[in-house]
Amino acid sequence: EKEDVSVVTNYQEIFSNVEIPKINVVYKMSKKAFKNIEEIILRFGLTTLINANFGPTSEFKEELMEKELITGMGTSIDFEENDIVVITISCETKYPQEIINMIKENMQNLDITKERLNRRIKVNVAQYITSFDDIEYINSYIQSEIITFKKIHNDVFDTFKNIDIDTIKSILKHINTDNVAVMVQLPQKKTNS
Predict the structure, then answer these.
(1) For the whole model, what pTM was predicted?
(2) Cβ pair 75, 89 in contact under 8 A
(3) Are 183 and 14 in contact (CB under 8 A)?
(4) Would you say residue 191 has pLDDT above 80?
(5) Which residues are CB-contacts of 129 (< 8 A; sequence separation ≥ 6)?
(6) What distance in Å separates the CA atoms of residue 29 and residue 85, rounded to the nearest whole number?
(7) In the predicted model, what is the mean pLDDT of residues 118-145?
(8) Which of 86, 95, 102, 125 is the most buried (most CB within 10 A)?
(9) What's the CA gap between 40 and 149, in Å, rounded?
(10) Which positions ≥6 away from 27 have C-beta within 8 Å?
C-alpha cells in the first residue's frame, strides 16, 4: 500500500527535558515526482544539494552560527519503502519560530553553483572513503543498501561522477515543499514545589 504524501500534523510542540528548544522541519514528497532520475543518483544528488544549503559548511548554517541563532544544525534524507522521500532539517535554537521561517524560506530557494557542486562531490567522496574507518557506520550502510536497493552499490565513485549541474537542476525542479511538518521540542515548564 502506498503512503499518502500529505502530512498529518503541520505543527506540533512537545515539552521535554531539554534546555534549548530543538526543531525538526520535515518535508515529505513522492519519489515518483523525480521522474527519470535513478534512485541512487537521486539519493546522492539530494544529499549533496541539501548539504550545500544546510550542511556543516553551508553559508546558511555559518550565518546562523555566527549570529548565535543556533547551536547546531543537521540534515537527513530518507527513502521510505513506500516511495516517499523525507528531508529533515534539525537544529537547536532559542529562536524556534524565526529559524523555522528561515529554514522554510531557504528550502523555497534551494540553489547550488557548478563550482559548489563539484566541491561538495569531492567532500562526499572523501567522507565516503573515511567512513570505512567506522565499523558501525559500515554495518549500518550495508544494511541500508540491502534494505533499500536489495544490493550493495560498489560503484559509488562512478555514481558521484554522474551527478552534474543538469542532474541537480532536474532534482531541484521536482522538489515539492508543500508537505511540511514542524515539530518543536520545548523545555518543560518549571514548577515551584
Answers:
(1) 0.87
(2) yes
(3) yes
(4) no
(5) none
(6) 5
(7) 87
(8) 102
(9) 9
(10) 86, 87, 88, 107, 175, 176, 177, 179, 180
Burial environment of residue 83 by CB neighbours within 10 A (0 to 12, 13 to 18, 19 or more): middle
Collapsing DSSP to helix, strand or coil, 157 comes out as: helix
The residue type of 185 is Q
The b/e string for 67-77 (b: 16+ C-beta within 10 A; e otherwise) is eeebeebebeb
State how far the alpha carbon of 98 is from the alpha carbons of 12, 64, 184, in Å. 16, 11, 12
Give the span between the Cα atoms of 80 and 85, in whole angstroms. Answer: 6
Three-class SS of residue 129?
helix
- pLDDT, one tens digit per residue, over 49-70 is 999 999 988 999 999 999 999 9
The CB-based long-range contact list for 107-113 (8 Å cut-off, 24+ gap) reads 107/25, 107/27, 107/53, 107/175, 107/177, 107/180, 108/177, 110/49, 110/50, 110/53, 110/172, 110/175, 111/53, 111/172, 112/48, 112/49, 112/52, 112/53, 112/165, 112/168
Per-residue cell: 46: 539530494
Query: What phi, psi does 146 have (nearest 5°)?
Result: -70, -45
pLDDT band at 100 (very low <50, low <70, confident <90, very high): very high
Task: Cell numbers for 101, please give them.
Answer: 521561517
Q: Quick one: pLDDT at residue 3?
A: 60
